[in-house]
Amino acid sequence: MKTCKSCIKEIDNAASKCPYCQSFQIWYKNPQIFGFIFPLVFIPVMFYSMGIWFNKNYPGNEHLFEVKEIGISPGEHNRLALNYLIANKSDTKWHNISYEVSVFDAAGKLLFVKTGQDYSWLVQPNQSSYLTIELDNNLKAEKWKLKILDIKSGRF
Ligand SMILES: [Zn+2]
CATH number, domain at 97? Predict the structure, then answer.
């Protein structure tokens, strides 16, 4: 004989359920336990999936960004620094920008195209962030055009 874990009455050694108070003697034989196990498994899966659902791709979401050219300033080693202010009009954090800058002369002739990536760049939801791109100092360069190729998004 053993005693019930709940009401302490004597019950059969083989009993998995107490005949007096109906309480389960072995935790995994209690069907209610799945009410606890299920959320433990489901909640992390749900948060993981949310991360995937809320990640947006830049292509198709270009309208969420407003690019403003701030101007040029002297860069390092006699180079030019092109400065942009990029406004994020979404409720998602964006980071790791890939871009392409086309450089033209005064007559509008394309001189060269520079592509690059800034891993440290990020913009919080509904905020703006500066992007500085250094270029070789080309005396003929008069106009610049930035094209954002990609930005990664993240919820957190
Ligand atoms: Zn009992």
Answer: 2.60.40.1620
Q: Domain range spanning residue 147?
A: 62-154
CA 28 to centroid of ligand 1, rounded, Å: 17
Separation of alpha carbons 20 and 23, rounded Å: 8
Q: How does pLDDT run along the chain (156 residues), one tens digit per residue? A: 899 989 999 999 998 899 999 999 888 878 887 788 888 888 877 777 666 666 889 999 999 999 999 988 887 777 889 999 999 999 899 999 999 999 999 999 999 999 999 999 999 999 999 999 998 877 788 889 999 999 999 876
Ligand 1 centroid, distance to 60 Cα (angstroms): 63
Tell me the CA–centroid distance for residue 9 and ligand 1, in Å: 6
**DSSP element (H, E) containing 100:** strand 93-104
Centre of ligand 1 from the C-alpha of residue 36, in Å: 22
* Residue that has been written with the tokens 């690059």 in this structure: 116
